[in-house]
Amino acid sequence: QVFQVAYVIVKAANSPRPGNWILERSLDGATYHPWQYYSVSDSECLTRYGITPTVGNPVYRRDDEVICTSYYVVLLMLARGKIHTSLINGRPSADDPSPKLLDFTSARYIRLRLQRIRTLNADLMTLSHRDPREVDPIVTRRYYYSIKDISVGGMCICSGHASTCPWNEDTQKMECQCEHNTCGENCQHCCPGYNQRRWRPGTINNGNTCEKCNCHGKTEDCYYDAEVDRTNRSLSVHGRFSGGGVCVNCSANTAGTNCETCRDGFYRPTGVLPNDPYPCRLCQCDPQGSLSQVCIKDEKHADPEKDLSPGQCLCRPGFAGERCERCAFAYRGYPDCKPCLCSMAGGTNDDPCSEPCVCKERVEGEHCDRCRAGFYDLRPRNPRGCSACFCFGLSSSCRSLPWGVTQVVDMRGWRVTDRQGLRKVKTFVEVDQVAVRNADVRRTLPALYYWLAPTSYLGNKLTAYAGHLRYSVSYDIPVDSTDSEMISDVDVIIEGNGQALSSGSLGLMLQPFEEQTLSLRLLPENFFDFRSNAPVSRDALMTALANVTRLQIRASYSSVKQAVYRLSAVSLDVASPDAAVGSPAALDVEQCHCPHGYAGTSCESCMRGHRRVDGTLHGGRCEPCRCHGHADDCDDLSGDCMLPLSGCRHNTMGPHCELCRPGFYGNATRGTADDCLPCTCPLSIASNNFSPTCHQDPRGVLTCDQCLPGYIGLRCERCADDFFGEPSSPGGSCRRCECNGNEEAWGGGRVCDARTGQCLRCRERTAGFHCERCADGFYGDATGTGGCQPCQCHPEGATAPQCDRINGQCPCRPSVVGRTCEQCAIGFYGLSSGAGCSPCPCHPVGTAGVACSADGRCHCWPGVEGRSCDRCTSGHYGFKEGGCTPCNCSHTNHHCDQETGRCLCPPNTEGTRCHRCIDDHWGVNPHAGCRACNCSAAHSRGARCDEASGQCSCLDGYGGRTCGECAQGRWGYPACRPCECHPEGTRANTCPAPPTGSLCGCDERTGQCACKENVGGTRCDACLPGTFGLNREDPRGCTACFCFGVSSVCRELQGFVRMQVFMVEGQRSMPVVNQVGQRETMSGVRYQHPEMILHAGEVLKTLHHEPFYWKLPSQFTGPKLTAYGGKLRYTVYFEAEDGSGRSDREPQVLLRGGRNKELLIYRDMAPPRPGQRTQHQMDMTEHEWRYFNSVLDQPVSRADFMSILGGIGNIFIKASYGSRMTESRISEVSLEVAARGNGSSHLQAACQVEQCECPPGYSGLSCQVLPP
């Protein structure tokens, strides 16, 4: 049996209380859960059980919290100690146990798991005794567990519904004595018949007694249903619909939640109560006339309006009576009960079964069952049988509209207004109604004002004909009001199409605090003309309903200013095809058969594609719209087809859809859907149509008028020069070339590849798909303000001329350091070798440090010598750190043995004073003696050498002092093959000056010549790809292909020679201009063969100040690309007043040109001396030219220089040389250009002129001619 345990008390016997132990519970005896942990110390709670200890008296924060405590164990008692564990007291819901606490304290088995004895620290006594027998036995003899009593306090689990649970001898367990109408072993459910409310456990504060179900004495069993409780469908014994009791097995033919009704086939007569012993009677329905044997069960199911009372059977059509035992009126022949032939709606016979049938005025047929032509809606209440077709005078054929009736209900947007509707006041919304305060409204409106309906009640409401307008009105006034006076006036006003109709002059007299619901049927007899109070015709009502513009319901009913008026439940019956199934039919509403061009239920509208010509509604005229088949509607007055909501279709526009919309072309008046076709600029799809307009010329050629920026061509099918893409491919477009501002601005033409967007003309020093990085040989931020700087890698220290494009670090040879690889690392030397630096060969004893000189010579201690500082100098001995000791030998020139200091002649010397060398030695030195010649036996002409220099006599091809290496221009010792380096492509520092006749040097191991930047090959005899024209004078060896940025493949022009452009014979004038060329003059200029002469005084009258320049004639300008590599020559002369003149610093030559003649460069040189003819000659290459007026004074790039030569605008040659100058002269002006040779051998070949391989569409030597 499971109990609710309240406490557990454990009492020790003659030993201390347990140290570490766990109190556990179980419901099945197999799985145990802890109730509480106990430990000898707080630290063991954490280390052993992983629980934060509870300090002091146990405290519980949750109903199911398991704690660990050392509270009971720390008390030092040798015996009879108690441990009291309370499982309920002190927990949050101890006074009213929660389900969680009840579950936590439920147990069938209790276990004490003992894990450690309490030693009372006696174990520490052994540390001070050598013999364990010396430990006090009074303590150690109690090292065991002993428990003499365990007390468990608890109770039976009776869910709070029992006071006692006595022992039952029969079941051998305690049983709950359930109270509060509960049952079960643990009182865990309500007893049968007491399930009116959901069972809940009993608490101290609330017994939660189970309540008896109300089954009116028809059963003693029930169950609880939460849904029934939620919806209040069960009647309690207290007479309230409260609770969820549902009766089962109802007797006496009853049924229902409370056995309050009868089962099928039985009924409870009027006046019989549900608690009657036998309330239900048997239905006696006639099997012939009734639908079933089920009748109306009780008053709850009755419907007096349909004459259905308790016990009434549900009859078949044509039958009547309480039991359906006879024929109904207008039927005959029981038990068949067939209809009589005369229509009750269309005939005037008192008995429809009497013949012949007599028809009403507008009815016809043998049985008076159909309307005559021009009439509809056969009704019994119509004295004339049918209603006349109205159809606004356009048709006499109609029928009842086959739609159901629904209601317009909308309490949003109501306002109050005066009778004319001129001023409006907002209302405030209450629950399902709108309201206004009379005092607020009277500030704006008069005493009589109206509710103004929102738009949902307006517009075409012809389908509301004969329907009801229903609404509820009420008002409140202060209870103590004394000036209350009721107001009466027109209740409802309907306006539309010039009609104003009212419901009558005498309206409702409404009392305060009273709500009235009114209903107004929309028939002519219920309305009057608002202005004349005359009766209203059907024509007037139908005209107003065709377009209701205002619906007003009276709002004010009292003169009390503090009145509050309310309006609610406004509904308007209308016919709708979407009415709910089973809705009453809108038989009063006509559906006319309209002539062509008319539409609407009463022909009140023009058919789509037609317009009302005369503005008349009744009998008006509709004619077709003239929209060329491109619109369905047009304006009634103007006939304009461009309506806001519909408008012209098929991509047309105009008052009659006679024009094509922008973006389309064609003839819109042909009347077909394909009159206007989309502009194909170049494609018809929206993503590839790049012009908003287009047109078709008389030849039928389509031309796009307004190509978007970046698109060119008749149909915008190509990208402009600064754009790229594939506009003719679906989804393609033209995007601006992304060259990071590094594209060259000269020469025109494409900036990037028309398809891929790859930049074609990156500015010098930049490269990459988008010119986004520095070119080879440069570094920096190509897209930033810093730009790209030259690498300037040291030719001997770097392995390549290219550096890191970001930080500019050159690739250094071994042991070489520095950004440009310009120096050896500390402890290394030999940068000029071109093979990297070698370790300094310094002796660790004789050297003063690890560094050495550029040639590898170490820094020696005093008295130490040798390249490596590895020996004492002559005249010294005792090699040691710090230096050698001087010899004390004056008679041998202070020479001695270097180890002992004994006086000796210097090595390899002879003579009385050691003054000459022995054979095969040279370089007598009074201290060091002589050095051996060491001439190579294989590559010298003998063993002797020059006594002064030591140079051996070498065989051809060998060099060096001892003939032990290859001579200049050879490599691969000892074979020493010629280098064969091409002088034009080899770096100048490896080639001696031409007069020496020596060959250029190369790498002594590989034979690789040291090539210039744009040169390759082992012998430096070939231009690298993208370059041409190997030339000794070019510092880069070869010239980079320019090709106006559209190609990188070129070669040097062949078969052309240098020709001179001279002054033309008879050309006797040359203008003088100021420095920027804005002003020029011929005043003071004359020709005297062979010179042009200017008089400074005359020129200054026009140009006002110096400097001024000769402006060369037109034969020197224009396209001059073939002048590249040629020379500009001229001779100048000037005179000054005092014979000296005053030189200035202005450029000697200015050259202007480029795409827009925006580039201006200059070349400077030493000015002429007064009175001396001076010839100037300058190369037409970019190397010595600089940008004029440039802050950085940078050298001109090849790209800009070629751009200028592609279109030279002006050549200015300096003509002024100081303020004292009186006269200046120029002669012998010439410019070399390339021209095709004629076989003459005396003409110089034209070098350095490129011939490019141009892409399709481009031509010219440098691809300078753009495609058409």
Automatic annotation (TrEMBL):
Ranges of residues in domain Laminin EGF-like: 283-339, 625-678, 737-790, 791-839, 840-886, 887-932, 933-978, 979-1040
Disulfide bond sites: C283-C295, C315-C324, C648-C657, C762-C771, C774-C788, C791-C803, C793-C810, C812-C821, C840-C852, C860-C869, C905-C914, C933-C945, C935-C952, C954-C963, C1011-C1020
- Domain named Laminin IV type A is located at 409-591, 1051-1251
Q: Where in or outside the cell? A: Secreted, Extracellular space, Extracellular matrix, Basement membrane
**Superkingdom of the source?**
Eukaryota
Which GO BP annotation is one of this protein's?
Answer: axon guidance
Name under which the protein is recorded: Laminin, alpha 1
- Assigned GO CC terms: extracellular region; laminin complex
Q: Where is the Laminin N-terminal domain?
A: 1-155
User: From what organism does this protein derive?
Assistant: Petromyzon marinus
Question: Which UniProt keywords are listed?
Answer: Basement membrane, Disulfide bond, Extracellular matrix, Glycoprotein, Laminin EGF-like domain, Repeat, Secreted, Signal
Molecular function GO terms recorded: extracellular matrix structural constituent
What Pfam families has UniProt attached to this entry? EGF_laminin (PF00053), EGF_LMN_ATRN (PF24973), Laminin_B (PF00052), Laminin_N (PF00055)
